[in-house]
Specification:
mainly alpha; Glycolipid transfer protein, GLTP; binds ligand 1PX
């Protein structure tokens, strides 16, 4: 996400990572999923320290999944599908909500999966916005429709305060570093269907295995 020549962040590269997530038979590669989030966190960090409490949580989840990816059972963590089968078959998931296995891959990925829904809603708003639209409004609408439903009051409050200081649309597009607004719109239009597909495949998989409300 940081191009080597000028060391500037580029959102196009991050969004491309999500395209790499889908295997030919529509499984979701965990490695690219995690890499996509890593890129998004870099972007978030470049927006300022107000967002640190958000990026810290994302980083800790990325770290948990990275540890599985490079751990002794790494071959079980190639795709989200293989992770779910492996963790369920080996009773590594807190399905009975007894507090064991608080850091399973399944529950950790679920948090990022819910955040991916926020991302999709936010990017869709950005894509269809005009120069008078406010990023803070787009962001909080997307949040209220998705992640907020899983967060306690205090987190919602803190998130709301952070959204207020988001840069305006013009500055935001500049930080994305994909070119003029028309180019941003085109890049978003290309990436969104892929993000949506990754989201939907994960959602269906989790629904099938009754994993959508893992503690
Ligand atoms: C072109 C635009 C790109 C924007 C990229 C921004 C990347 C944002 C990354 C956000 C990742 C958030 C992950 C949150 C996971 C979560 O829900 N964690 C909670 C539950 O975890 P637990 O382990 O306790 O069950 C945790 O409580 C979260 C705490 C931190 C607050 C989360 C607020 C999320 C707001 C999401 C919107 C980010 C705003 C970015 C503005 C651009």
């Amino acid at each position: 996400s940081w191009s080597s020549d000028n060391q500037k962040f580029c959102m196009r590269e991050v969004l491309d990572t999500f395209k790499l997530c889908l295997s030919p038979d529509k499984e979701v590669y965990l490695e690219h999923y995690v890499a996509g989030w890593r890129g998004l966190v870099k972007f978030l960090n470049s927006l300022g320290s107000v967002f640190t409490f958000i990026s810290k949580d994302a980083v800790s989840k990325i770290q948990i999944l990275s540890n599985f990816l490079s751990g002794e059972s790494s071959s079980q963590y190639v795709t989200v599908q293989s992770m779910v089968s492996y963790e369920l078959e080996n009773q590594l998931v807190d399905v009975n909500k007894t507090g064991i296995h608080p850091e399973s891959g399944c529950r950790t990925l679920l948090r990022l999966h819910r955040a991916l829904r926020w991302l999709e809603l936010f990017l869709e708003r950005l894509r269809t916005s005009d120069k008078h639209s406010k990023t803070s409004v787009m962001c909080s609408e997307a949040y209220n429709e998705s992640l907020a439903q899983h967060h306690p009051w205090l987190v919602r409050k803190a998130a709301g305060l952070a959204f207020v200081v988001l840069p305006g649309r013009t500055a935001f597009f500049e930080v994305m570093n994909v070119g003029p607004p028309e180019q941003v719109v085109a890049v978003l239009g290309e990436a969104l269907p892929l993000i949506l597909e990754v989201y939907q495949i994960t959602e269906d998989l989790y629904a099938k295995h009754h994993l959508l409300d893992l503690p």
